[in-house]
Amino acid sequence: MNMLETGPDGLCRCGWCMPDAPEFYRRYHDEEWGFPVGCDTRLFEKICLEGFQSGLSWRTILAKRENFRAVFAGFDIETVARFDTRDVERLVQDAGIIRHRGKIEAAINNAGRALEMRAEFGSLAAFFWSYEPREEELMELMVAPSSPVSVRLSKDLRKRGWKFVGPITTYAFMQAMGLINDHAQGCITREAVAQARAEFVRPSRVV
């Protein structure tokens, strides 16, 4: 259950955005987390960064996000898919990111799989939003950090050759990209996210 915390500004936010969090972390909570995303580049960036977070905290990854963007060509899918072993060595030596060879290679691999998915569905957005939970599935999502729907998404991605996309990773991705509104009741951002989700045009598969 997502609990509330009161920040130094006196406003109530989700408990994971702890009272002593730095300003950049509170801004991420207030302005990004949970708002629906239909941009393939942002979706690809997020699924990659969630993979890099595995075993770490999102606060650590968010602090390095601009460095990740710089060395991963803004997470342009076509460009990352062309990265080779020289790029892997370059990234392993870069102290501005998480220097985990397996996660770096996974991001490059996943770019190739993302291109395949685009060819099949027309966009990454069409694929990911097909996993938006139905009303009757929302109660399943109370068992964070994973749920049956995130397990299904994880299995589908891994079947398609994606790496570092376990059910906890896919659940966090769904929360952040707005497939569900997981802001706590009483959080200052919950209603804004609800409104954004109501106005968001869900992407459809291009045949």
Describe the SSE topology.
Elements: E1 4-6, E2 12-14, H1 23-31, H2 40-53, H3 58-63, H4 65-71, H5 77-81, H6 85-92, H7 101-121, H8 124-129, H9 148-159, H10 167-176, H11 190-199
Binned, the helix content reads 40-55%
- CA-to-CA gap between the ends? 39 Å
Count the beta strands. 2
Tally the helices: what do you get?
11
Give the domain tally.
1
Beta strand %: under 5%
Radius of gyration: 17 Å
GO molecular function: DNA-3-methyladenine glycosylase activity
EC number: 3.2.2.20
Protein name: DNA-3-methyladenine glycosylase I
Pfam families: Adenine_glyco (PF03352)
Explain this structure to me?
It is a single chain. By secondary structure, the protein is mainly alpha-helical. It has one domain (33-199): Endonuclease III, domain 1 (Orthogonal Bundle), CATH 1.10.340. Helices cover 52% and strands 3% of the residues. It has helices at residues 23-31, 40-53, 58-63, 65-71, 77-81, 85-92, 101-121, 124-129, 148-159, 167-176, 190-199; strands at residues 4-6, 12-14. The chain has a two-stranded antiparallel ribbon. A hairpin with a 5-residue loop joins strand 1 and strand 2. Helix 2 packs antiparallel against helix 7 and helix 9 (148-159) crosses helix 10 (167-176). It is globular and about 50 Å long. The model has no long low-confidence stretch (mean pLDDT 92).
